[in-house]
Structures are given as C-alpha cells and as structure tokens.
Amino acid sequence: FQHSATVKSHRHRQQLSRQYAVPEKSIDGAKYEVLLDWVKSNGGEINNKITIQKSSQGSGYGAFTNGEVKEGEIIFEIPRKACFTLEAALNDDKFGKAFKNLIEKAGPGGNTVVMAGYMAKERLLGKKDATGTSAWSAYFDTLPWERGINNQEHVLFWQEEKIEELLTGSTCYVEAKSLRDEVGLATSIMNKVLGPSIRVARGEDVDEGGFNINRMLPWMAKPPTPEEPPEGFPEAMKGAFVCLLTRAFQDEKEDGNDDEEKLVPLLDMLQHSDTPNVRHAMRKADGTVEVRARCDIPTGTELFNQYRSEEEETMPYSRFFTRFGFVPGISEDMENLLRDKSSIFYPQKAEI
Ligand SMILES: C[S@@+](CC[C@H](N)C(=O)[O-])C[C@H]1O[C@@H](n2cnc3c(N)ncnc32)[C@H](O)[C@@H]1O
C-alpha cells in the first residue's frame, strides 16, 4: 500500500509539475545578434571574447568568455543613451511632463512606476509602428515580457490561485501579495496617463460619454470606456515590472555613491553569483557603464554579476525569490520546493 501511495504521489507530482512548470519558449539566438549590433550602433564597445549562451546556473541565458580575459580588461562599455534610465522616461516628448508630475506627487516610489509605464508604452507602440518601431525594440526583444521567456519565473506572472496555493504560510506570501497589489495600482495610475494615447495611436474609438451612435444601437460593438486599459497594457506593465525587478541594478559611481537603478543592456544578461568575476561602474564624465574583469578569467568561463550579497540580512533567500524569481544555488523546481514546504520558504517548526 505504501508503495502504491508513493507511486501515486510521484505521479501526482509529475502531473502538477507538468501543469505548473515554467513553459520554456524556444529561444531565437538571432535576437542577441540584433542586440549586439544595436549596442554598437549606439556607441557601445563589446570585447570580442564575449558570447551569449545557455547559463550553467538555472535554465536562462548568460554571458561567457571564448578567450582569456585579463583582470581589469573591459568586457563591455555601454553609453548612457543605450541604458534604460528614469531620465529617458522623463525626456519623453509626449509624456515626460506627466511623468514628472506623477513623481512629484508620489515621491521616489513613483520612479519605478514611471519607468515601467514608459517601458510598457514603448513596447506597445513600438511594436505597432510598421516602419520605425520603438528605439528600444532591439533591446526589448531580449527581455522576459512573459513567463517562460528565457525560463523566467516570477510571482508577478502567477495567477492569484497559485499564489494562495503555493505561498500561503510561507515567508514570501506578504511580500508577493503587496508587490502584486502595487503593480495593480501602478497599472491603473499609468492607464490614466497613457491609456487614451495608446488607443488613439491604434486608431481605436473610446466611449467618452455623450451622444454616440455605437451606444444606442445594441447590435453594434460598444467601444470601451476610457477607464478600461487598452488591450495588452496590464500584461506589458507586469512584464516591465518583472524586467525592472530582475534586471535593473545600481552602478558604483566614482564618488563611491550608487547611481539610481537602471537597465543596462548586456550587463543584464549576466547571471548572479555571490563571488562575481566582473565589476561594473558608471563613468562620471559621460555616464557610460564600464564592465570589467575582477580577475583573470579563463576561456569558456561564465561571467557573473552579484545582484545582491547573499550575506545581507535584509536579503533572505525567500526575498531573492520574490524579487528575482530564483534562489541562488538551488536548481530544483521552485514549485516542488514550495509544495514540500522547504525551509527556504517556511519557518522551521520547533522539534518536539
Ligand atoms: C539579469 S537576468 C540574467 C539573464 C537571464 N538569465 C536571461 O536569460 O535573460 C536575471 C534572471 O536570470 C536568472 N538567474 C540569474 N542568476 C541565476 C542563478 N544564479 N541561478 C538561477 N537563475 C538565475 C533568473 O531568472 C533572474 O531573474
């Protein structure tokens, strides 16, 4: 009986993992060629000993050396204009002013909301434009806008029922819920700022009230009200938040202070390790981000950045998971660990 119970639970587990495993989407390697060309056309310098391949950690992609790199050698240099910064959002011709007002009202918490809104708008309208596309599209096409792109996992991508099922009672629950609520709030605030223009750019009709023949004739499709977000907008906001949470970092500045968080193309292809082999800093003169080897790096080595120190008391592994979608050093399926009530996520019960 015990044996069949075990088999059953094993089968059940397999079914569940099939149901819940991150759906890996096939990777089009050409997108990285486009990215490298885009970085270079923006004035970036890339060491020719660097390649992008499947990472040795987890199942996403990462960067590797295909030649020996000496300590201090430049790995890449990314100019400020190729970095996705708050400044870029605030300089947007059409929405920069509205973004500034929002930050004035919301305080510094508004920075991420504005960056996410600007990203979502560029993603949606850039895609829509048949000729020019967004200036960011070569870069944005490499980002995890949906669960499973480069095997990206994140609690923002989960359905509510999965949060309840897997996280209730865990140390992630409260933070995962409040993060999801904040993204929901940010989406409705940004919808007010961006929604109508996205609709206009798409040539959509909006029900502004007043006389409208479409509302009077029941057999005609009703146009949406201005409060309803444009199609794809909530998903784009969610994707933007996942990108910012998992890929935006602060650089060291020459004065020893940290710069604000921003997305740096290529630096954001590096996986995390608590013993990184690169360092990154922002040049004061022109804001260029320099990524250099911390030590001699042999051929065929994966390059690692340290997202956050694993020693920080404010960064337990459960928080790593809520923010970055992975737990350092753990290759097992996260959902199985959560179902098994792993001590990473569940406080240890006292032994009786
Ligand atoms: C800055 S991105 C790194 C590039 C990303 N792997 C890609 O393919 O685009 C951060 C994401 O990579 C994955 N990741 C980074 N370091 C990892 C590690 N040490 N183990 C497992 N996954 C890791 C996580 O999904 C994380 O959210």
TrEMBL record:
GO molecular function: protein-lysine N-methyltransferase activity
InterPro entries, A to Z: SET_dom, SET_dom_sf, SETD3_SETD6_MTase
Domain SET: residue ranges: 48-308
Gene3D superfamilies: set domain protein methyltransferase, domain 1
Keyword Transmembrane helix: no
Domain of life: Eukaryota
The entry's keywords: Signal
Protein name in UniProt: SET domain-containing protein
Entries under PROSITE patterns matching the protein: SET (PS50280)
